[in-house]
């Protein structure tokens, strides 16, 4: 897997808060640092963080339109009106529809559901659904996870005297639909204190509002479980009410799971309990697969069925999910092959094929970002109109960028890090050009670099302190209480220094590399996995088997043996043994991220994470040491391949003068030099 421009950085921490909270909580400082970095700075905040409860929910009636929405639903139930629940076909929308159906059927038998077909109707409230509503004598439509951009559809419902309640979390446009009421915390005049709920989260607030206002009883654990799945799958920040929803949902899942979750759980016999990652990687893909490759109503049926009725539906979902994985992998490979022909200097990735299934392009866009950390759009479709799924890198608002290009779109919606769009195929080249330019103008070098944030340095000795009877260290036990993990509350990242390989790496599960590390001093070991990297190890092993490379590790170079020209080096292994190796050339690779290794001791002038040079010859402040490429810094520096050629040319001329002062440096060109043409075999 290829990742460019990775930066390892330590999270900054306010030591004053750390000292005070450590005194109050009486837990290791490393843990306190993690809490402070997550915004937990007082004892009360720590209490809410580790022991969230229902009393921490915000008042649903602080959300604009809530009272009006509750009253309209109350009226519809009392009058036995036909109510339609309409939702998107992804996990958020599917869970929303199932949740609201389960809730409303407690009080009414006149409840219908509708989810659009991804291929035939596309995202949002469709005109087909509007016509269907009229035919079925629907008088109230409740949309979940969609509707905020559906101006024409809302207008048509109004003309047909059908009331519309929109529950959506996507960014509103300049014009709002003419609905009976809109529940969306991102509305300009909405004073609700938490803006990051997913669609299902807003649906949950509507349920809470109804129960509070109407003084009705309902087992809300079903709603908590589905809202937790939707919240984690939609990758919203796991802070505030989102964290509370997932916490309560997991608590309910692990004590009394709904029938559908039980069915999934049974496929993992070694799974003791669910955590947030299990919701994302074990449950969500199955729910998502139906909407992506078949129809989301299958997943709704699966979530709602009980008493064994879900068995046949589950088998269908398992089959669909298997097909989804295959499509996902094949499409990703094809997309990466397209991108291999693009220059790496581009700021964006835009790929298209008429053969790709629309249901997997969002997944593929996310996978491409794992390989090439750039804003990415994947298009599919074989007609005049093609559909795109956009994904962004951290801290870059792709919705804002695309909104500036909305003149290209026939349909568009989304939020900061993800968006969907439809354009005319003939405009794809022009759109890609303008998208690249806009991103290049707005994407800073800092944001362009993928950051891996380290919480704290730690040793194996500290990690393994205070084991319980099950052999689990206290540090890990407390970290487990920091669940649920996700955006804004990520799993902690520790940095271990001076670890060594205890055994050669090996491939596990066909795709991953497993390691075993030790610190020798404390005689403690720890395992590690590098996911989806087996191909890298296989390539190295093949080269070693063919005798093309010889791997010596772990070791250090202790001496260079030479008079004028390098003849050999001496290396020393961790067990103290030494080996002399005949050597023509030695290449030293020093990382310039976080820790500089030997370079740190050379006294070079630094500009943040780059080395300052003289742009006349690219010499550093230390005579005889030169720096070129992305690692060097000088006035007017551009991170371009062409700049690199320029830097290397000037540096090489100066190096040649120093090494061979009595010889003349000659530049030769393939276009004019007969000698070079002969070397290249050109006739």
Question: Could you give a short description of this structure?
Answer:
The protein has 683 residues and is of the alpha/beta class. The protein folds into four domains: 54-321, inorganic pyrophosphatase (n-terminal core); 342-452, Diaminopimelate Epimerase, Chain A, domain 1, CATH 3.10.310.30; 552-587, no CATH class; 588-683, FAD/NAD(P)-binding domain (3-Layer(bba) Sandwich). Helix 4 crosses helix 8, helix 8 (199-214) packs antiparallel against helix 9 (221-233) and helix 9 packs across helix 10 (240-255).
Give a quick set of tags describing it.
683 residues; alpha/beta; inorganic pyrophosphatase (n-terminal core); Diaminopimelate Epimerase, Chain A, domain 1; 4 domains; five-stranded parallel beta sheet; five-stranded mixed beta sheet; 39% helix; 17% strand
Write the SSE topology.
Elements: E1 7-10, H1 15-25, H2 29-37, H3 43-50, H4 66-78, E2 83-87, H5 91-104, E3 111-114, H6 127-135, E4 140-144, H7 151-159, E5 163-167, E6 181-183, H8 199-214, H9 221-233, H10 240-255, H11 259-265, H12 276-293, H13 296-304, H14 310-339, E7 349-353, H15 361-371, E8 376-380, E9 385-391, H16 398-403, E10 409-414, E11 418-424, H17 428-442, H18 445-448, E12 451-454, E13 456-457, H19 460-463, H20 474-480, E14 494-495, E15 500-508, E16 512-518, E17 525-530, H21 534-545, E18 555-562, E19 566-573, E20 578-582, E21 606-607, E22 610-612, E23 632-633, H22 641-659, H23 674-679
Parallel strand pairs: 1-12, 2-3, 2-4, 4-5, 5-6, 7-8, 13-14, 22-23
Antiparallel strand pairs: 8-9, 9-11, 10-11, 15-16, 16-17, 18-19, 19-20, 21-22
Helix pairs in contact: 1-2, 4-8, 5-8, 5-9, 5-13, 8-9, 9-10, 9-12, 12-13, 12-14, 13-14, 14-15
